[in-house]
Amino acid sequence: MAFKIASIPVLFPIDICVFSLQDSKYATTLHMKSNGARHFEVFKTNNGVYELIADIASPNGIAMDCTDFNNKGYVAIALNYTERMQSANEGSPIYEISGRHVRAIQYFAAAHLTSMYLRNADAEKFILLIACTDQDIKIYNFNDWKFEESKVQFTDGALGQGGQTCVSIRKMKSYLIIATIIWPIVRPTYILPILNKNSMLTL
C-alpha cells in the first residue's frame, strides 16, 4: 500500500490539527515565527500541496484543537491570560472555516486557560467544547451559531468544583473520557456517556 506524504511549512509548531471538507484537506497550526511571535495559520491543499490561506497573530496561544461539522471546520485556540479579558474579542477565539474563508465566531474571556478541546458527539450530531483552566473544567454545546455552557448536572458534581485541571480528553464511541488532576494527590478520570446535548452522566 502506498502512502502519500505532505508537509506543512511552519516553523516551531506548538500544535497541528488536520481535517477534511468535501474533497479538500485543511491543516491548522499554532506555532512560533522565527522572531518568537505566536501565530495561528490555516492551510488548504491545492494539487496536493498545503497553501496558506490565513495567518492570525495569537500572542498568548498555548493550545489548539479542531474538528469538522456540517461541512465546516472549527478551531478553538486557548489563550493563556492571567486575568479575565475586559473586551470580548480579546478572549480565546473559536474560528469557523469554509472554503478559503476563516472567521472568528466566538470568544471566551476566561483566564488561566490551559487547553480547549472540540469533540463531535454521535448520540445526536453536535459539537462539544471542553474548556480547561488551571482550576476548573467547563463543557459547552454548539447550537449552530455559538457555544453555550452546558446545563448538564454531573452525578458526583466534581466537574466545576475547582482545584482541578484536565490533562487529557478522548472521544470513544458515545463516551467522553476526561482525565483530570485534583490537587494535590487525587487523580480521577471521568467517563461521560453522551446521550444527547443535554444529557450526560458521570460514571
Summarize the structure.
The protein has 203 residues and is an all-beta fold. The protein has a four-stranded antiparallel β-sheet with strand order 1-2-3-4, with no helix packed on it. It has a four-stranded antiparallel β-sheet with strand order 5-6-7-8, with no helix packed on it.
Write the layout of secondary structure elements.
Layout: E1 13-21, E2 24-32, E3 38-46, E4 49-57, E5 61-69, E6 72-79, E7 92-98, E8 101-108, E9 113-121, E10 126-133, E11 137-142, E12 147-149, E13 164-172, E14 175-182, E15 189-196, E16 199-200
Antiparallel strand pairs: 1-2, 2-3, 3-4, 5-6, 6-7, 7-8, 9-10, 10-11, 11-12, 13-14, 14-15, 15-16
Stretches with pLDDT under 50, minimum 5 residues? none
Q: How many DSSP E strands?
A: 16
User: Which percent range describes the beta-strand content?
Assistant: over 45%
Helix count equals 0
Give structural notes.
This protein has 203 residues and is mainly beta. It has a domain at 13-111. It is built from no helices and 16 strands. The strands form four sheets. Strands 1-2-3-4 form a four-stranded antiparallel sheet, with no helix packed on it. Strands 5-6-7-8 form a four-stranded antiparallel sheet, with no helix packed on it. Strands 9-10-11-12 form a four-stranded antiparallel sheet, with no helix packed on it. A hairpin with a 4-residue loop joins strand 11 and strand 12. It is globular. The relative contact order is 0.11.
